[in-house]
Amino acid sequence: MAYDKDLSFIYKNYTRLVFGINSVNDLGAEVDQLKCSRAFIVTDKGLVEAGLAEKVEKALGSRYVGTFDDVPQDSGYHIVNKAAELAREKGADCLVSVGGGSVIDTAKGMAIIVSEGGNLQDYQGFQMLTHPITPHIVIPTTAGTGSEVTYAFVIKDWEKNQKLLYGDDYLMPNTGILDPVMTASMPPMVTAMTGMDALTHAIEAIHALQSEPISDTLAFGAIRLIMENLPICVERGDDLVARGQQQIAATMAGIAFSNAQVGLVHAMAHCVGALYKVPHGIGNSILLPHVMMYNMDEAADRYALVAEAMGVKEKGMSDEEAGGAAVDAIFEFTKKLGLPQSLREVGVLEEGLGEASEMALCDGSVVYNPKMVFEAEEVLGVYKKAF
Q: How high is the pLDDT of residue 160?
């Protein structure tokens, strides 16, 4: 899709980024930069056991007021509300999330409640806030979600078995500290699946209806970095140079999709995640090439750009041929990373695909897919191919 005189867009990215080995030691100064003095840590028990939370606590020094370390995978309303209540009791004026997507998303929800009161359910929707909320510093321990720079978060309604999307410009974290050391202990499988989350963000940003030249460029660069560095991170987790490059790629992809949006891959991954607890990165990884094939008749030129970034576009290829090469390369890439290739491998039941298809049509991401999706049968067809 060539851009023309009708091109018009708004680009946003408010997050201050601090990158470097051991940059977590700059945390205290970053809290001071925000004019805060009482920082509350949000994390999970695995990161406490790994000693990463303690490292952050030491970096805060006298600014530290408490920790909530009970964030699970697919965090829910009750988790956010409970954690926010504790932070308010401690008098927190700043949140520091240390972890992956679920931890960061929990802290985004908490930032609303610590500032505004009530429960998270009171604020469901898009652009519901009218002013800045509790300052939030993110220290990612994975390199995939990009949540350190995005305006949205996902929370699961555990009672309805449904994932809900929140979005607001005031949810963008104030600061992201990208320290490769904080990701070095990530196991190979977690490294691979979170890395594929980042690749999916970049490719969906390129094919999304709100794509524009700035997000295209960020996504293009992110794809190149991921193709080069993710396999190294999986094979040699202690390679801090590769870890750092993968972190930067994930953040670039996060900025790209926070502006351009995502599409059907995310809508479908959210649903199998809610129904069958499929980790988000694995759901994205399995579904990505199948959705690209579904979209091909509407987005071949966009996938040709993806193929160029992946280094598989050859001279003389048509857009469709280049797009097909990109799809094939993704299948090969995920096999090389040792990731599952089908939904059945990760516990999805065939009889549940119909319910997932109906749910996907209601997901906020689906409206940005380059190919309009009107019927659940269309989604079901993609699910069956990925099954």
A: 85
